[in-house]
Amino acid sequence: MSGKSNSLKSTIAVSLTNYLDAGAIVAGASGLTLWQKYLGLTEVHLGWLNFISANCLGAAIGAIIGGFLADKYGRKFIYTYNLLVYMVGVLLVMCSVNFPMLLAGFLITGISVGIGVPASWTYISESSEVNNRGRNICISQMSWGFGPMIILLLGMFFAPGGYLFGWVESIGHFIGGADLAGDALNVFSSRVVFFSLFVVAFIAWNMQRKLEESKEWTENRNAAKAKGEDTGLLHAFKQLFTNTKAVKTACFLAVIYLTWNLVASVMGFFQPHIYETAGGLTNEYANMLSCVGWAIVVVVTFCVSFFIDRVPHKLLYVLGLLAALATWFVVIAGINGMGTLWLFSILWGINGGISVQIFYALWGSELFPAKFRAGAQGLMFFVVRGLSAAWGLAFTYIYGENGEGFTVAAYCMIALLLISLIVGVIGCPNTRGKSLEQITRERYGEDY
Which helix (H) or strand (E) holds 315? Predict the structure, then answer.
């Protein structure tokens, strides 16, 4: 029981990285309209915020750095310093008074998120028991759902006209003076939401810096040194790119995650904005509807955690993508009232609870040897989030200023999800019930 208890404890501590990842994305999204009005931003400005944020480029840059640092210096190295960077980025967003400050805050926060993600999924898998690896990844995914749910609740309560906006007004007048009003006052609701992320990041940093180093990483590093093997970053890159099995695996995982994430990244950042423009909802109602969707993600993921280590992964993978496809078929059929908006949100929530990201995190930490496990994930994350950044910019032109291109966007989403479904079904690995050492030996031989 002690092993299971320890792995669960470390999983919860590390999973706060996912809370902060998704929370940073949705904190920006929930207040997007408020920042737009306060700073006079255009849709192109919004696209740039998405482009360099935790949703896309910022995370991409951080991931390729963090992945290989975690392989060279250890998983604990990341947890000792990374969230300090995150707190700096969040503080910069909180204090923003112009677009360059806001952009810089989003970028720094995004880089920190990217640095933490590969180490997070790797550490969870390496510290899990064989029959609980999928469960622990699901717990991490639940944290990815809790973040947006809580952030959107705060966004709803603190939004102009919300139940707690009186507190926001008091804070705004205390900082900006009694004459502060209009959009300059309203945007303080978003500043307060980002402050909540700063508090969670501080708590998470204190928990994570006390974690023990991954036993598997330590043993692998000691064995490599005993053999006189090169443990440098360039050597890790060389091993990854010269191993045919590793390259094929990276391509498979990158394709299934990229095609799904191109859809999910848009939904994560623009969902409340879509509800406001295409659905005609208020900022408060849009955040509430998005919050319900994330609550569904948490509930479904919790249920999946009981089965993922016991049923074929391919079955769950297909169910999740069918829900995602159904979401966008609703759009094609027509968003013509609250009923279809609710259906859209519920179906996407079900997809999020059995998402491709669960299997990408699980397979990505299983299918590579410990010596370049985090680096491989960081490289794939870099590719996925980088291309998602470019897609986020393109999406603003497809979508239009007022959602006039929503149906065209839906067809693009369906095509991407179909690719993820087909490739995932063809390449689904059989790793359930096997230790990481066994999987490595089967795929790479005894030398790894």
Answer: helix 313-333
How many angstroms separate the CA atoms of 105 and 60, rounded?
16
Q: What confidence tier does 399 reach under pLDDT thresholds 50, 70, 90?
A: low
Residue pLDDT, tens place only, 114-127: 898 888 888 998 88
Q: Which range scores top for mean pLDDT: 197-206, 212-221, 374-383?
A: 197-206
In terms of Cα–Cα distance, which of 266, 260, 257 is closest to 377? 257
DSSP letter, residue 159: S
Number of C-beta neighbours around residue 321 at 10 A: 24
Backbone angle region of 384, left / alpha / beta, with phi > 0 → left and psi within -120 to 50 → alpha: alpha
Contact 375, 236 (CB under 8 A): yes
Report the C-alpha gap between 162 and 283 in whole angstroms: 10
CA 437 from centre of chain: 27
What b/e string do you get for 411-441 counting C-beta neighbours within 10 Å, with b at 16 or more? ebbbebbebbbebbeebbbebbebebeebbe
**Is there a contact between 331 and 406 (Cβ–Cβ < 8 Å)?**
yes
Half-sphere exposure of 42 (CA within 13 A, CB side): 5
Token digits of residue 106: 């989003």
Give Cβ neighbours of residue 73 (< 8 Å, ≥ 6 apart). none
- pLDDT for the residue 2: 42
Interval 351-379: pLDDT, tens: 999 999 999 999 999 999 888 888 888 88
